[in-house]
Amino acid sequence: MGLIVTTTGSVEGREIVSYLGVVAGEAILGINVFKDIAAGFRNIVGGRAGKYEEELRRGRALALEELEARAAELGADAVVGVKLDYETLMGQMLMIGASGTAVKLS
Description:
By secondary structure, the protein is α+β, with helices and mostly antiparallel strands.
């Protein structure tokens, strides 16, 4: 079984035996993404911005991959209490951050 990543504070059916520390991953999407998105607004279907949603999914996946890599470096079995944050930087970039606590399970 691979690394478990969850927003909950525990893993059902498993006991946390040690806390290894806070881990985080970030992804920053640059200005070109927003230019592409603005151009893509012409393709909005049903009131949704598909290109923007696609970029957000890609950024979230990258941030979570980095979080998992940091946890694996610590020898974690899981990351609990995962939180995702979205911030704009300098009005031209979007940062997606993922953080949680790396743990060892029984």
